[in-house]
Amino acid sequence: MPSNSMNTLWHSLLDMNRKLNQTLCLLSSAEEVPPSAVALIFKLEHKESMKINKIAEVLGITIGAASNLIDKLEEKQWVERVRSEEDRRIMNVQLTKQGKEQLLHWRQQFSEHADVIFAQVPLEELDHFSERVVRLSQHLSDYNRRLESGRSRKDG
């Protein structure tokens, strides 16, 4: 059974996740796009392109919902669908120049909001907290990789 401090930490992390999602919702509403659109734009920053089914998987939505989301982002000219050169049946999604500009705009907005949010916290405390969060994040990533590895062995 987890200790009281682990339960407290777990609940605090879940609460922080909810609050971060709420902040993302508030910021994305200014652009009249759902938070999943913001999440996708940030995800595409680190990928040259993604298949629609992978986008659906990453965002935790159906392929149909992912396709509708991509339609909205194409209307804003933030993403484009590109046929795979290896397999013409596969459609990939990638950021456009306007999408990259929107990403930079959001980064600037998030940075400004972070300045306000964390202004009350001493810099030394922020540095200490940041180191801990990075370490926890790495532990969580390692754990998730082990879970995925075990799942793929069962599926294979």
Automatic annotation (TrEMBL):
Single GO MF annotation: DNA binding
Descriptive protein name: HTH marR-type domain-containing protein
InterPro entries reported for this sequence: HTH_MarR-typ, WH-like_DNA-bd_sf, WH_DNA-bd_sf
Pfam families: MarR (PF01047)
Annotated ranges, domain HTH marR-type: 6-138
PANTHER family, A to Z: TRANSCRIPTIONAL REGULATOR, MARR, TRANSCRIPTIONAL REPRESSOR OF EMRAB OPERON
Domain of life the protein comes from: Bacteria
Transmembrane segments: none
Keyword vocabulary terms for this entry: DNA-binding, Transcription, Transcription regulation
